[in-house]
Design a protein that fits this description.
By secondary structure, this protein is of the alpha/beta class. Helices cover about 40% and strands about 20% of the residues.
């Protein structure tokens, strides 16, 4: 169904943009075939590499394919809008109206430009986003406590070692108290990504670096990846917690396995297990890659849940569809029965849909305050 749905923009472009143009038939057939291949690049990646989540091709190819795919998507939307307007005008004027070829060329160039911009926004090192969060009963010792929240780095052929080095440098320059990473750090096997993830070993914060799993870890061997993260100096939180202390004051950091874990033969998320033995009365920050269970988590005594997964919906308009697939959550702060959910739009995103318009990536510094 997924591959069928993403072929629809291609069919619209072929039938409504390309076919009416006064070009030689062979050229339209050739271009149509190329567009069909681009529309099915996820399927081709799966056939070639065994997974559509890790296209092991040069970065330039990833950028080009995403640009062409985006241009096809935007052009299809533009053409549909033109068709609707033309139909309305035809009904008003009571005569058949044609669409000038010049307009089709103009729309094509516009769609290509928008797509190139969207890909550049997706592939960049994310800008800093400052977020203040109030926690009821936060001990005075943790007033102004600073967290850098990273998520969905999707280290891959698109986000390679140079990009990772830049993110690490920018993160460390913030001098935060702790760095928390909520999954989907990679796309690819450890063998393929070992060099690209190596700069993560340089992440540094006063109270350490903590990580929970995302769904993409389970596509490429979660046990192996979570163990490797620990060799890079990160503490993995898999249905468990740790306690940060400032004198007599305590702050609980807990993490749960991703919601997809059980489907891959691993233990699923378990907030009860994660909080077992945690000091009573201490504020709790939970790392949970997906936001879908946030309402249930709010009833478990958690004060702040940090999540990712949605990539902020990637584009204005499309974010509404992403929200519907994630229990109404897509990006930003949500207040849920005494708990705050902060849903990060992503440090990066899946290279299979590397487009951002109006939903920027973020390197997030969260400052805690007493409520």
């Amino acid at each position: 169904m997924f591959h069928l749905l993403i072929s629809l923009p291609c069919l619209i472009v072929i039938l409504r943009v390309l076919a009416p143009l006064p070009w030689p038939r062979w050229s339209k057939i050739t271009l149509s075939a190329l567009l069909l291949l681009v529309s099915q690049h996820h399927l081709l990646t799966q056939l070639a590499f065994g997974s559509m989540f890790s296209p092991e091709v040069p970065r330039a190819v990833v950028l080009l394919v995403n640009t062409l795919f985006g241009a096809m998507l935007f052009l299809a939307l533009m053409q549909l809008a033109v068709d609707v307007v033309t139909l309305v005008l035809a009904l008003i004027k009571r005569r058949r109206l044609g669409i000038p070829g010049a307009l089709r060329y103009a729309l094509s160039l516009m769609a290509l430009g928008v797509a190139a911009f969207a890909v550049s926004q997706a592939a960049r090192v994310p800008p800093l986003k400052e977020v203040d969060i109030a926690i009821d009963g936060l001990p005075e010792a943790f007033e102004g406590y600073e967290i850098v929240h990273l998520t969905d780095l999707h280290i891959s052929r698109l986000f390679q070692v140079g990009w990772v080095e830049d993110v690490v440098e920018k993160t460390n320059a913030l001098g935060a108290d702790v760095i928390l990473i909520t999954g989907d750090l990679i796309d690819g096997t450890l063998q393929a990504r070992r060099d690209d993830v190596a700069p993560l070993a340089s992440l540094s914060a006063l109270d350490g670096v903590f990580v929970s799993s995302g769904n993409h870890e389970y596509y490429f061997g979660a046990n192996e990846w979570m163990a490797h993260y620990q060799t890079l100096g990160m503490q993995a939180l898999a249905n468990e917690h740790t306690v940060i202390e400032r004198g007599d004051a305590a702050l609980v950091l807990a993490g749960v396995n991703d919601a997809s874990a059980a489907g891959h033969g691993y233990t699923g998320p378990d907030v009860t297990q994660a909080l077992e033995g945690a000091p009573a009365g201490a504020p709790v920050i939970l790392l949970d890659h997906q936001p879908r269970n946030a309402r249930n988590t709010a009833a478990r005594g958690v004060d702040l849940q940090l999540s990712g997964h949605t990539h902020g919906g990637m584009m204005v308009g499309f974010d509404r569809l992403v929200a519907r697939a994630n229990e109404g959550f897509v990006s930003g702060k949500y207040e849920l029965d005494g708990m705050t959910l902060y849903l990060n739009s992503g440090t990066a995103l899946w290279p299979g849909f590397a487009l951002r318009l109006g939903k920027p990536s973020e390197l997030t510094r969260i400052t805690l305050h007493a409520q």
